[in-house]
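Quick illustration, no need to memorize.
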Amino acid sequence: MIKHYRYYLLWLVILLVYMLGWRIDLMDVDAAQYASISKEMTQNHSYLKVYDLGRDYLDKPPMLFWITAFFMNIFGTSDVTYRFVNFIFAIIAIYSTYRFSTKYYSPPIPYYSALILGICQAMFLITQDCRTDTMLMGWVMLSIWLFSEALSTNKLPTYIISFAAMAGGLMTKGPIALVVVIFSFGSYFIYRKKWNNIFKWQYLVGLITILLLLIPMCIGLYQQFDLHPEKILYNQTGNSGLKFFFWTQSFGRITGESTWSEHGSFFFLLQNMLWSFAPWILLFLVGWFLKLKQIIKGNSIEEVSFFGFTLTYIALALSRYQLPHYIFVVFPFASIITAETLHEIRKKTRIERISKFTKFYTFYYIFNFFIVSALLLLIPLIHIYVFPMTWGLFIALGLIALLLIVLLRNLSLPTFLKHSILIILILNIFLSTWFYPNLLQYQLGSNVGKFLKHNHRTQNDFFTYKIDTSHSFVFYSDILPKSIDNVGDADLGNWILTDENGFRELEQNGLILKVVKSGLHTAVTTLSIEWLNKNTRLQNSGKYYLVEVTGKLYHS
């Protein structure tokens, strides 16, 4: 049995590692855009109609923006406040995974499930580079756990709360939140022949709850878009906000009604799970096949997680537009499947000393050792080729590793699980304290934005010339940039952001310029091997200049 106080201490360490990423700037595009929209919502007090830099926004439902704006009104419009909201929903997802697991499995499977989810690489990513997927995962797993509670207790208030969580998911990323629940429990009811659970009068109350909670969002969509078919979005008029959120955004990607198309391969999401569900991906794949075999034979413990993951994966994989983080919503199910597999293999290995399970467990232990050790090699590789480290950081990481070893050795966990936890934590401490801070020095938007804010520049004395800014620029500067079309319009004292060509053109057109700040920049979320290599980074980077107009040369 896991000693609880040490288990809680381990979780405290994990949560602190999540929070280490809060010291870096928000990354363009998604995280900075969503934070910027939330900030704009607090400033304009426009909660039903959503705007992005003053333009109508029709992409994501408003729940993330509503909750973030609520906290920003209390704690201020900072990147920490934005990340705090996602942090809370990450905890909700992990806790709900644990509570759902306790309904079907005895210890230590619930403990394993929570740990496997909390330590997978995706969780460290989405608590730093925060998107709607963190909140979606929280709402969906909360609704799964509460709905399973409602089925066992048959208490109406529990049904209502579970359906309210589903509404939260719907208002976070659309119908996928409800689809996951239907896939999970609908298939479970059919498989178990629980026909009486398919139609219950409590569901009607739950659906009414969802409809009531959706009213504010629907009013906003109708007023902003359906009442104004003349608005142009996605290069067309006649856009219905209601149709977009309830159909086109999700199902339109399968039917072809959506114009978005990217990464249409059926195995695209699985390929990306190699890193996002690291270091558990091999054990999960084995577990998925073992679970399928159990379901076929009729001796599985629970099927909700299997059907929830599998059917959701198929639905997402059929979409013509896929991104790696779309599958994160069902990582709690993957964690449960992995935890059950780990426990069953260990149990059968102890009972059957010489068996296929013993051989597999030995193979997986060795395989996992090399995989997570290879992950640890990223640290010296980054030191040598990307961002050279100081000896102080090496020593600090070593001391942290020793403290973690002392903590983990007293936990009743499989040896390779301890090894995986140790390596993943050390790796993400390194990424959050060294790699990402160095990388974000090359993000033009946040660096220039914070510099302008510090120097009290305003909308009236700052301009851009032949260079694009970003949402991180607007978020950190509080300036909606204006572009100079005619160089002669620049006044003395104006600050202008431009690139190398623009800098030369400004000087050639008679402006006397003082370079206030300059540097290299790149798109930090789409890095190339050439850029990462410190020896070839310069020629693969753009250069920006922030200049002050100190005089003008007039030619006769």
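The chain has 25 helices and six strands.
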